[in-house]
Amino acid sequence: MTDKNSITEQDQQQKRGINRRDMLLAMGAAATAAYAGTAAAAMPGHDHSKHKPRHGDVLSASNACTETGQLCIAHCLVSFVEGDTELAECARKVHEMQTVCTAFSSLVAGNSEYSKEYSKICITACNDCEKICREHDEHFECKDCADACQALVKAIKKSFG
After folding, report:
1. Which domain holds residue 153?
2. Is the overall model pTM greater than 0.90, yes or no?
3. Are 77 and 89 in contact (CB under 8 A)?
4. pLDDT by residue (tens digit) across 40-93?
5. How many other C-beta atoms are found inside a 10 Å radius of the C-beta of residue 28?
6. Which residues neighbour 85 within 8 Å (Cβ) at sequence distance 6 or greater?
7. Are residues 64 and 98 in the same domain?
């Protein structure tokens, strides 16, 4: 395309008025400005310092447990693909632990009144997971998962008694 052609196209766009791109950009800017104004005015002087989880150490341990569990399950799946089903029970217990710990993390993050009661279920799931993972601790993924479960149980007992 030559310079003469591009100038002609620009002239044509200017003659047509505002284009769709400009309209979308303007609408986006207006929406952003409107949202920023209402968000700032919604609660003047609101103190966000109380929004932190009361049991941050438990939340961190729970999230670490879930993360190491994911790596353990990934290792188990590779073993399954290779035809080795020895880790099937391990994968099942890790999956259960992850389900429980994910829910527990949500409760703890929100400072839920149910956290303490639910922590008992989490301890049971973690103890079961740790027990089966220790049977396969020659696999570092299983060992890491067992260690994370043990650390979470310790954190829960320290925080919730």
Report:
1. 56-160
2. no
3. no
4. 555 666 666 666 778 889 999 999 999 999 999 999 999 999 999 999 999 999
5. 10
6. 79
7. yes
